[in-house]
Q: What sequence folds into this?
DNA sequence: GGGATTTTGGACCGGCAAGTCCAGACTGGG
DNA sequence: CCCAGTCTGGACTTGCCGGTCCAAAATCCC
């Protein structure tokens, strides 16, 4: 068991996860075999099971965690600094670009569908990702309120939840149709909704 | 080949599609075999291939179409009559209820992931569903404008696209986390956004 | 009612991919 | 330099599942 991992061991393990993530993004989980991953990462069957004793599911779960981390990282530093309209719009652009580049396979969506049933592991990863994402959006909205740029009456949690849902759906639709119109519409409408609440009260 | 289908034949075919849809909703496409479908529908292997000569993919595609039709049907008649705030709220309730009952497997999402690559068939089904759905939302919004309940300055297509994305994402998140908060937030915020635009101009 | 056609049953095949196993190579510490 | 532990290669096994096939039953049409 990988209780004690050598530096080399850790490197190999990381190589497997990253390579697997690549292949999965390209082919989708349904069409990816362990042999695909093995050949891409230049490893052997035994290594795969050495580092992931529970087999494919465990590896898939590790990839899911890897991808989940990437999602928020790729939005930084913008997501952490949503304190002006300009920063909101910069963030918007980053999100659109990131998902347009990603191609037509949602790593997390498909991974979840595959592993979903088998345990609470996958669910926990997605839930935690959504929680953090929404939290950062909510923080940005509260900053706007503090700066007098948005109404203090705004229901921040609900609005953040709605915006997150819009992004999520926009991405889903883009994966299915190849068109990013809905993602842009969700982001723009969400931000416009925030802006439209200003002017109510501007405590200096 | 199913050029000529007897009444009995048509019935069997329909039974297969409906039964397959059930099983797929329960188990997810990744864990459903033709034998599962065969046993659920009380049919034999040869029947499956008699009615769907191209095998599993063709059957899955038929199920996808079946489910896509259901999506809009289940929202009627409310979706077709979005002419007052009351009707919008009724529709909202129907949507939430429908997806809360559906359980934790998105038939279309997973079907798309499976068949997606193999051809434009699946993509076309999803694209067409989204188009019709958005069109009906847009029509409802225009009705509101005509009735002086929403601002004529509202960008109807964009707002409809954003609302659709919100629903889609809300459903996706609910599938992953088991929590319908985001779906409700998306619907409520979307409708609230519509309402907030009124009063601007009310041409009688 | 009889022949053509459709529908049905289920045994069978073949390939693929997950997982096992063991022998051998590397590594790191004493 | 040697031993214990880790890492690696790859052949092999195994079970599953999509797909094929043919013959028998039911059905339809004349």
A:
């Amino acid at each position: 068991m990988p209780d004690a991992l050598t530096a080399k061991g850790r490197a190999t393990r990381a190589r497997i996860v990253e390579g697997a993530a690549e292949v999965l993004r390209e082919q989708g989980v349904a069409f990816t075999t362990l042999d695909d991953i093995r050949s891409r990462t230049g490893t052997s069957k035994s290594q795969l099971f050495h580092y992931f004793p529970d087999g494919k599911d465990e590896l898939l779960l590790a990839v899911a965690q890897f991808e989940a981390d990437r999602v928020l990282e790729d939005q930084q530093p913008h997501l952490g600094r949503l304190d002006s309209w300009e920063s909101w719009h910069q963030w918007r652009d980053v999100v659109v670009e990131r998902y347009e580049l990603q191609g037509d396979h949602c790593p997390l969506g498909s991974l979840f569908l595959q592993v979903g049933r088998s345990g609470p592991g996958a669910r926990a990863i997605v839930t935690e990702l959504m929680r953090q994402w929404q939290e950062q959006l909510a923080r940005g909205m509260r900053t706007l309120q503090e700066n007098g740029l948005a109404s203090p009456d705004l229901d921040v949690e609900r609005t953040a939840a709605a915006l997150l849902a819009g992004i999520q759906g926009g991405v889903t639709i883009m994966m299915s149709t190849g068109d990013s119109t809905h993602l842009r519409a969700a982001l723009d409408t969400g931000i416009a909704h925030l802006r439209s609440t200003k002017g109510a009260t501007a405590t200096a």
User: Anything to note?
Assistant: Residues 78-203 of chain A form a domain with the Tetracycline Repressor; domain 2 fold (CATH 1.10.357.10). The two ends of chain A are 59 Å apart (CA to CA).
